[in-house]
Structure formats: structure tokens, C-alpha cells
Amino acid sequence: MNMIELNSNGATTDSQVAEVINRMAIHDHEQVLFCQDQATGLKAIIAVHNTTLGPSLGGTRMWQYANEADALTDVLRLSRGMTYKSSLAGLNLGGGKAVIIGDSRTQKSEALFRRFGKFVNSLGGKYITAEDVGISTREMEWVKMETPYVAGLPEYMGGSGDPSPVTAYGVYMGIKASAKERWGNDSLSGKKVGVQGIGHVGRYLVEHLVKEGADVTITDIYEDRVKEVVKEFGVKACGPDEIYDIDMDIYAPCALGATVNDETLSRLKCSIICGAANNQLANEKVHGKAVMDKGIIYAPDYLVNAGGIINCYWEVIGYNRDAAISQTENIYDTTLEVFKKSSSENIPVYLASNQLAEARVAAMAKVKSTF
Ligand code: NAD
């Protein structure tokens, strides 16, 4: 689709407007704010998917989209994902996300981000922003100058700091719950685990796994990083493409999305897939069913990687690190609950997980409708 283009007298056609509203209606998005400012070069879209549970929270991504329609697709998809993530984590947060269309290496400026901050502020707290791909703390400092609705800030700015250790702890809980489901025992001692991507989250995850006596193999596209982690923890390493063929019980994707696809599923011999990466299933319906058919236990990505949003939530309501960690620990029980629903109803895990997330939103909508 083409995004709305104004004709020479500034008009749009009914069908262009209808198309955007229809796209919002597919997954019942509440509000989409299109932001542009010629003086600063800002072009952004903020999507608020659902605020039944609370204000929507989700990061801002800066990306050079091929066109505005792709940016809209991304922000609609990502904001809906945040509703599911916060719902299943038991948080009083809704789902929202923002995208800034542009090159994060060349188009960042204080003026652009402060203008963006003003747009965030104009939503009056309905959307709280945070860092995402292409954005760093420097830009969030600029956004924060124009709005208080920013989370996930570094400690020196009064925030909760790097969420990655908390995210990694949640993924570790998800892996243990998956082991319990698979082997009746959640010990990871001696289990062969392949960790793809040893960045912020992956490195902390390796630490938990090694402490528990797992037999860990890591991979990353940066060799120096691999060498560092091998040296620090005495783990094994393999090439980025070899990870799908190694002998492992557990595959932990902590780099990119869509690594569970037709090609990799024909190679993976693991019993469990559980990692931090967002959107691991290339096609949720197709590959969510395919993992089930292959007898692989797949722990939903947005459930097990919720430690980061849990940490942000505590920052919003008054930071308490112990409370954030202990709420992240609940990921273990929620993962088992999702598996139970999946097996008792004979439906793929992703679907069981989506249904539980939707059920909480629906139930809280009823609670909120009473005085
Ligand atoms: P990161 O950028 O710090 O680390 C990613 C690592 O993956 C990097 O070391 C990178 O070199 C490596 N990588 C990239 N492509 C690769 C490939 N093809 N093969 C092997 N390694 C590759 O990111 P992060 O913060 O550790 O996050 C990891 C994943 O978890 C991302 O998908 C992110 O969206 C998701 N996630 C992170 C958090 C968080 O708190 N940081 C929270 C929720 C979800």
C-alpha cells in the first residue's frame, strides 16, 4: 500500500484513509499518531495497541524503512506484541511502540529527538517510550528533556539501568521450565545448550548456564567477542551457521528473529527452543505448528524475554530491583502454565500463549468496567 499522499490541494482520498483505519482495525489498535516536522526532518509513527491494562510501554526504533507503509506495518506489529508481552508477564501495562523513519547513523540530532519527545508528551502518558534498535541513551536523554514518559533509562539519569541481566535471568527461568516439561526435572547439569549471540543478554545467560553445569556452545558473528566469552567461561564455540547442526538439547537464540524457519527446522536436532530473541518463529502459524509436529518444546519468546519490560515497569512505578527479579522468576511458572494449556488442548504453544495473554486483557477489561 502507499501511505497517505496529499494531492496538490492537500486532500487525501477516502480509500487511503480507510486503508490505514482498516489496518488498525485488524488487530484492534486504539490509536496511531503520525508525526512529521519539516524543520527537524522528523518522520515518526507512534502506535498504541491496547491500554486496557495500563499505559502502553514499548521502545522507539529508528530504522531506514524502504517506505512508510513498511514502517506502519512494523509499528503495528511491534505494539501489539508489547500488549501480549506485558499481559502475560502480569504487568499493568498496555502495548505501544514507536518508529522513527531515518538512518540512525546519519540523521540523529538533538532537535529531531526533542521534537519526537514533544509528540510522545502530547499523548499525556498513554504511551511511555524506551530505547530500541538504533537508539541509545544519548537520544533518550534528549527525549526526556521534553517528556517524563520515558523508561529504561540508565542509572545516572535516575533509571533502572541495563535491563539485559534481568532479561537473561527470565530466559534462564524459561529454559529451566522447558527442561522440567521435557525431562520432568529442571536441572540443566550436563545438558548441551547452544547459545546464538553473546551480546548483552547472551553473555549473562551463558553465566547462568555454566554455573549450573550445562555444556554450553556459543556462536556470534564477532570473533573477538566469542574468544572473550570462551576464555571467561571455558565454553565451546562454533561458527554462526554451524549452530543449527551441532548436537544440542537446547537451542537458545539470543541474536536475531526468524531463525526458526523451514531451513533451520530441517537441521535442528534439539528438544527445546528457548532464547531471548524477539519473533523467533519466521511465521508464527506455520513454524509454531511445525515445532510442535517435530516434538520440539518451544518456549514463547515474548514470555521468556519479558525480564526487560518487567524491569522497566518497576522503574515506572518506583524502582525495586528485588521485586523486578522476583517477578521475573514467575516466568518459570507462567511457562509451565502455557505448556499445560498447549498439551491439554493439543494446540501449539504460541497459540496457547497468545490466548492466555488475550484472556487477561479481556478479564481486566471487565474489572475496569465496574466502578
Ligand atoms: P545485542 O545486540 O547486545 O546482542 C546480539 C548479539 O548477536 C551480538 O553480539 C551480535 O553480534 C550477535 N549476532 C548478530 N547476528 C548474529 C548471527 N547471525 N549469528 C550469531 N550471532 C549474531 O542484543 P541483546 O540486547 O543481547 O538482545 C538479544 C536479543 O534479545 C535481540 O533479539 C533483542 O531484541 C532481544 N531482547 C533483548 C532484551 C534486552 O533486555 N536486551 C529484552 C528483550 C528482548
Topology:
Blueprint: H1 14-26, E1 31-37, E2 42-50, E3 56-57, E4 60-63, H2 68-88, E5 94-101, H3 110-122, E6 127-128, H4 137-144, H5 164-183, E7 192-196, H6 200-211, E8 215-219, H7 223-233, E9 236-237, E10 250-253, H8 262-265, E11 272-273, H9 284-293, E12 297-298, H10 301-304, H11 307-317, H12 321-329, H13 331-345, H14 349-368
Parallel strand pairs: 3-5, 3-6, 4-5, 7-8, 7-10, 8-9, 10-11, 11-12
Antiparallel strand pairs: 1-2, 2-5
Helix pairs in contact: 2-14, 3-4, 5-6, 5-11, 5-12, 5-13, 11-12, 13-14
The structure holds nicotinamide-adenine-dinucleotide.
Residues 163-164, 167, 196-202, 219-222, 225, 240, 254-256, 276-278, 305, 308 line the site of nicotinamide-adenine-dinucleotide (NAD).
Detailed description of the structure:
With 371 residues, the chain is α/β, with parallel strands linked by helices. The chain folds into two domains: 14-74 and 95-156, Rossmann fold (3-Layer(aba) Sandwich), CATH 3.40.50; 165-359, Rossmann fold. The protein contains 14 helices and twelve strands. The chain has helices at residues 14-26, 68-88, 110-122, 137-144, 164-183, 200-211, 223-233, 262-265, 284-293, 301-304, 307-317, 321-329, 331-345, 349-368; strands at residues 31-37, 42-50, 56-57, 60-63, 94-101, 127-128, 192-196, 215-219, 236-237, 250-253, 272-273, 297-298. Strands 1, 2, 3, 4, 5 and 6 form a six-stranded mixed sheet that branches. Strand 8, helix 7 and strand 9 (236-237) form a beta-alpha-beta unit. The longest helix has 21 residues, at 68-88. The radius of gyration is 21 Å and the shape is globular. The model has no long low-confidence stretch (mean pLDDT 95). It binds nicotinamide-adenine-dinucleotide. Residues 163-164, 167, 196-202, 219-222, 225, 240, 254-256, 276-278, 305, 308 line the site of nicotinamide-adenine-dinucleotide.
